[in-house]
Amino acid sequence: MRTFAALALSLAFASVAFALNCNGHTELCDRKYSNVTFLGTHNSPFVGVLPADNQLETVTQQLSGGIRYLTAQTHDKDGAIELCHTSCILLDVGLLQDYLKDIKTWMDGNPNEVVTLLLTNQDAIDINKFADAFKAVGLDAYAYAPGADLAMNDWPTLGTMVSNKKRLVVFMDYHADTSKVPWILDEFKYYFETPFDTTDENFAQCTLDRPQGASADGRMYIVNHFLDIEIFPGVLIPNLADAGKTNSMTSILAQTDLCYTQYKRTPNVVLLDFASIGDEMKAQDDLNNLG
Ligand SMILES: *[C@@H]1O[C@H](CO)[C@@H](O)[C@H](O)[C@H]1NC(C)=O
């Protein structure tokens, strides 16, 4: 009888401990989404070693490796939403919907993980078409809709997002419209970003680049910590050769320290190219004050 009770008790504890684990750490369950730092993959779908590629691992591998913040560039190709780099002639890795399906599959199998997807929409594709792509694979079911614009302190904790099963946060740089799709959020309402496409290997700035002229106050922020190299005058490509150095603790923390000095809070997101190289998960733990 006593053995049974002990067993039941330990099972109860085991399930509580399981339920309280968010993104790999119990400590993160009590932290507001807006108070967590995520190391993310810039242009997550462009996988390979060609000049238009930004990552070496597939999105599923990125997620399995610990990345919880994904960015993806979308373009209109003959009425379909495709993942293209600058233009679909330069690099086209296929339908947004197929990429979303991979994320859905991964999230189904990992119920304690909060994932963010930041989409670009330079071609001003109708927001309802984006919603259709999510719905086609069932990923909309996980999408978090705040209901009204959130102040930075109003974000739910990761624990709440996990227990409510609303643990996918979707942002879009331009042309979001929450009156039509309440769970695709306007990136620049919530964030500011530092400059991107830098060729300064020291990342010796933490300047507010976009939205231009906006205030840093009340906004989370994204640090673009990926390095380009100029191969011809005006032609920049991701710097794969130096990725080990760029993605090292030393390089990441040097820039985030600068940011902390400037804004008195840690960045919410640090975006990397070739994120499978380097110390990104260690840097993430460090920035979140996790041992
Ligand atoms: C989270 O809050 C702590 C305490 O105020 C702060 O030091 C840290 O910079 C915050 N992190 C983020 C990502 O906002």
UniProtKB/TrEMBL annotation:
<dbReference type="Pfam" id="PF26146">
    <property type="entry name" value="PI-PLC_X"/>
</dbReference>
<feature type="signal peptide">
    <location>
        <begin position="1"/>
        <end position="19"/>
    </location>
</feature>
<dbReference type="InterPro" id="IPR051057">
    <property type="entry name" value="PI-PLC_domain"/>
</dbReference>
<protein>
    <submittedName>
        <fullName>PLC-like phosphodiesterase</fullName>
    </submittedName>
</protein>
<keyword id="KW-0732">Signal</keyword>
<dbReference type="InterPro" id="IPR017946">
    <property type="entry name" value="PLC-like_Pdiesterase_TIM-brl"/>
</dbReference>
